[in-house]
Amino acid sequence: MIQNLRLRALGMSSLPPELWQEVFTWIPQDTARTCLSVSKYFHGLALRVVFRNITIFFGAWESAQAKEEVYQADKREYDVLEDKRSSMSSAILHRISHDPSFAAIVRAVDVHAYKRDGARGAFERGCLIEAIHCLHNLRSFAWHGVAPSPTPEVIEALASTCTLLRHFSAPLRTLPKLPLEKLQTLWSISYTWKWFYDTTRGQRSRLPDEHRDLKVHCERLRELQMPYTSPSHIPFDQLPMLTHLELLSIQTLDKLGPLLRKVPRLESLSIFCTKRQHDVLFDALGFLKSNLLNLHSLCLLSRQEGALESEHAQILADFLQGRKCLRRFRSTFKFREGTHLSFLGAIASLRSLDTLHWDVLAEDLDQDFVRMLLQHLPPDMLALSIATYGGLKSVDALVDLWAHCPDLRFLYVRTWGSADEPAERLLRGAKRLQVVGYNGKFHDVDLQDGQVRLSPAWSARRVAFRCPSDFGPGCESAEWLMRGLRIRSEVEEEGQP
């Protein structure tokens, strides 16, 4: 393959450099890595693709997540993996610190801090801070894990050097210890998390009141996800550019409706709501029925296992009805038999809708259910997710889906506890599908000559740290659709490579 690329490179070397640069902005990462070995000219172009976004490993997530007995049984393999990733990361940080032309390429840094032997990590942080002082073109910085945790020195290095920084995120419980107000160029600030259950079951309940309502530089912020006690503590008057708001670690939703009226430019809203806050949430949705006209994405998460009260279901349907801009909707709220028809009627009125997650109470997924859904589903869907405590009754259940939604790029089906069916059998008739998820597993889809071929299941690590590019071109909404939803069970998540 490399030899063929070398021959093509020699034959096309007369093309203008700016054209080649444009070509390389669209090629996949794997292809770009191959091009590093083609020629000196291709190496320079591919370098900008391969190292534009880099991941720095402090330890290995697989090792940190493994239970003690699993780790001890495979200790050698885990230690080799950790050493390999740490060595690779050390080499990248060293090159950033000593090669200005290489440092200028880097636009995004993700830190995966999962050292199994403790959270001190002074040497690792020191190397990272030295490299940050060379990253003058950095746009995005995200820290995952707390072994080691980010420190004020990391923030100060970003603030002093990275004047183009637009996005910052770090683990929720580390934020109160960081001087976030020094990051004055941000457009987006958030905390890193895998599932919204991480927030609700653990860190959310343990976060002291004095560690909420953190101060950040608001003037340029467009996207905000921070721990606050209530909406009244969010400085909406200081957020003139705000378009994306996530309220996923908040104690109370009091005054939500009137306060959101102050943000007419809001385009994306995500809310986690405990059962005791349901009345407040749905009062706010009723209050905002004629507002938030620019909203293109709405996410409503809850841990309630039962069905919504009928009046709440009707308020939600009324809020959704006829929203011209709404493209993406996902919710873990469930509906009683009879009330789901008003919800589906509202979905049918969303002519721009192309991304949907529906958490069904206990329906079996058969052809009758799918046909009922398709009567209300817009045909231009790109990404669809359905979860139910019912079962999958037939491999032909989805046969009508592909004819009704020919452009569907992503499908996820979760039937908790039901027996697995070979996923290929569910996809007969699919035309443009790129990724399929079924009962906790993701597969890349290859459609050739009417035949469906699936990749091996994504690793637990790829699932946990998935990003829009994992879902393929034109399907970036799939990552938003699955954000915060549990995909694997806890047993499946732990210690998987």
Write the layout of secondary structure elements.
Blueprint lengths: L1 H10 L5 H8 L4 H7 L4 H11 L2 E7 L1 H5 L2 H6 L1 H24 L1 H4 L4 E7 L7 H11 L7 E8 L4 H10 L5 E5 L16 E5 L3 H11 L16 E3 L18 E4 L8 H5 L7 E5 L5 H10 L9 E5 L8 H11 L7 E4 L8 H9 L6 E6 L6 H8 L8 E6 L10 H6 L5 E6 L7 H4 L8 E4 L2 E8 L2 E4 L5 H5 L12 H6 L7 H4 L4
Helix pairs in contact: 3-4, 7-9, 9-10, 13-14, 14-15
Q: Fraction of residues in helices?
A: 25-40%
The DSSP helix count reads 21
The average pLDDT score comes to 85
Q: Kindly report the oligomeric state of this protein.
A: single chain
Any idea what the shape is? globular
Q: How many β-strand runs?
A: 16
Residues in β-strands, percent: 15-25%
Instruction: Count the domains.
Output: 4
Low-confidence stretches: 196-205, 490-497
State the secondary-structure class: alpha/beta
Distance from N terminus to C terminus (CA atoms, Å) equals 28 Å
Q: Can you summarize the main beta sheet?
A: 16 strands, mixed
Radius of gyration: 24 Å
For the biggest β-sheet, the strand order reads 1-2-3-4-5-6-7-8-9-10-11-12-13-14-15-16
InterPro entries: F-box-like_dom_sf, LRR_dom_sf
Protein name: F-box domain-containing protein
